[in-house]
From TrEMBL:
<dbReference type="GO" id="GO:0005886">
    <property type="term" value="C:plasma membrane"/>
</dbReference>
<feature type="domain" description="ABC transporter">
    <location>
        <begin position="3"/>
        <end position="231"/>
    </location>
</feature>
<dbReference type="GO" id="GO:0022857">
    <property type="term" value="F:transmembrane transporter activity"/>
</dbReference>
<dbReference type="InterPro" id="IPR003439">
    <property type="entry name" value="ABC_transporter-like_ATP-bd"/>
</dbReference>
<keyword id="KW-0547">Nucleotide-binding</keyword>
<comment type="similarity">
    <text>Belongs to the ABC transporter superfamily.</text>
</comment>
<dbReference type="InterPro" id="IPR015854">
    <property type="entry name" value="ABC_transpr_LolD-like"/>
</dbReference>
<dbReference type="GO" id="GO:0016887">
    <property type="term" value="F:ATP hydrolysis activity"/>
</dbReference>
<dbReference type="InterPro" id="IPR027417">
    <property type="entry name" value="P-loop_NTPase"/>
</dbReference>
<dbReference type="InterPro" id="IPR003593">
    <property type="entry name" value="AAA+_ATPase"/>
</dbReference>
<keyword id="KW-0067">ATP-binding</keyword>
<dbReference type="GO" id="GO:0005524">
    <property type="term" value="F:ATP binding"/>
</dbReference>
<dbReference type="GO" id="GO:0051301">
    <property type="term" value="P:cell division"/>
</dbReference>
<dbReference type="Pfam" id="PF00005">
    <property type="entry name" value="ABC_tran"/>
</dbReference>
<keyword id="KW-0131">Cell cycle</keyword>
<dbReference type="InterPro" id="IPR017871">
    <property type="entry name" value="ABC_transporter-like_CS"/>
</dbReference>
<protein>
    <submittedName>
        <fullName>Cell division ATP-binding protein FtsE</fullName>
    </submittedName>
</protein>
Amino acid sequence: MDIRLSGVTKIFHPDITALEDVYLEIPKGEFVYLVGPTGSGKTTLMRTITREVVPSRGQITVGAFSLRKISRMDLSLFRRDVGVVFQDFCLLPHLNVFENVAFVLEVLGMPAREVKERTGEVLDRVNLWRRRFLYPPQLSGGEQQRVAIARAIVNSPSILLADEPTGNLDLHTAEEIMQLILSINALGATVLMATHNQYLVDAYRQRVVELKMGRVVRDETRGRYEIDGEL
Ligand SMILES: Nc1ncnc2c1ncn2[C@@H]1O[C@H](COP(=O)(O)OP(=O)(O)OP(=O)(O)O)[C@@H](O)[C@H]1O
């Protein structure tokens, strides 16, 4: 699904302008880094795409869905097609690895046999099948993030939104996660990844969209993390 933001502004009460007149088109299957200083609006932009945040002005369309006037039913259909990964993993600590991932499909009402099969496949893909009976606190940070990614992609979404997915990881583990996210993109998912990780952005060159004070100030096809040493 193509993602299109036109003239998106978000003003939080009473007067914090988190996004200002953002125009952005992300074709289906593209990989985009979202960079910019803390507070520049990266998370807010992603949250407008999941429609957790509704813009004060402007329009967002994702595929055939126009998010401003989307019905409840369409919104839940739409959200099934968007996987989300966060910096702090957000796993359920009282469920084991398998259950954390299977849970997503169970709430969609999928038959138990299919849940088992799909969960098994995705855990294999992120190389965690052998750890399926462990609980999140028993896993390393990188393993927890792989569970979170498995959970995000188990329903084969067309879009993956990753908000600082390597923020809590060392460089080696961050690279593993990066390669996993790139492999998901290579299979066809559109990926939008907010990051402060200069090394990854410069090592795995992709489109870079930079925000400053809620505005898009740079959009480069194969950009670097920063221009002329300043950001
Ligand atoms: N729910 C909210 N209510 C009020 N202000 C908010 C809310 N969410 C975000 N903001 C404000 O909007 C601005 C942009 O925040 P946002 O989290 O999008 O930035 P960011 O670029 O993701 O930052 P970081 O790199 O630190 O994650 C900030 O000034 C923030 O305080």
